[in-house]
UniProtKB/TrEMBL annotation:
InterPro entries: ArsR-like_HTH, HTH_ArsR_DNA-bd_dom, Metal_resp_trans_reg, WH-like_DNA-bd_sf, WH_DNA-bd_sf
Pfam family, one: HTH_5
Keywords: DNA-binding, Transcription, Transcription regulation
GO molecular function annotations of the record: DNA binding; DNA-binding transcription factor activity
Protein source organism: Erythrobacter neustonensis
Name this polypeptide is given: Transcriptional regulator
Length: 116
C-alpha cells in the first residue's frame, strides 16, 4: 500500500506541474524537436522571460533537457512521448460542448499529431 501512495503523490506532483496552459503549449512546441528560448517564445507568442521561467521549472523536474552551444541554450523534451501522452488526454475534456466551433480540438489534435 505505501508504494501506491508514493506513486499517487508523484503523479499528483506531475499533474500540478502540467496544470498550466503555457507549459502544455511549450511541451507541444518542443515535440517537434530542439529549440532555443527565442524560437519557443516566437512560436508561442510569449515573452522570453516567461518561457525561460517555465523551462526552468520543467528542467528542474527533468521533463526538459538543456544543451549549451556557446552562449546559446537549446531545449528538448527529455521524453518526447510526453507530448503524445498529453494529446491522449484530449478525449477526456468536454470542450466540444463549450465551443461553438468544435474544430478547435480537431485542429489541436492535427497539429500535435504532425510531429510524429
Amino acid at each position: 500500500m505505501p508504494s501506491r501512495l508514493i506513486v499517487s503523490r508523484q503523479l499528483a506532483d506531475l499533474f500540478r506541474l502540467l496544470a498550466h496552459a503555457d507549459r502544455l503549449r511549450l511541451i507541444e512546441d518542443l515535440r517537434g524537436g530542439e529549440k532555443d528560448v527565442t524560437g519557443i517564445a516566437q512560436s508561442l507568442g510569449l515573452p522570453s522571460t516567461r518561457v525561460s521561467q517555465h523551462l526552468a521549472l520543467l528542467r528542474a523536474h527533468r521533463l526538459v533537457e538543456e544543451r549549451r552551444d556557446g552562449r546559446n541554450h537549446y531545449y528538448r523534451l527529455a521524453r518526447p512521448d510526453l507530448a503524445g501522452w498529453v494529446l491522449g488526454a484530449l478525449p477526456f475534456i468536454d470542450i466540444r460542448q463549450q465551443l461553438e466551433d468544435a474544430a478547435h480540438i480537431d485542429t489541436a489534435r492535427a497539429l500535435w499529431g504532425e510531429a510524429d
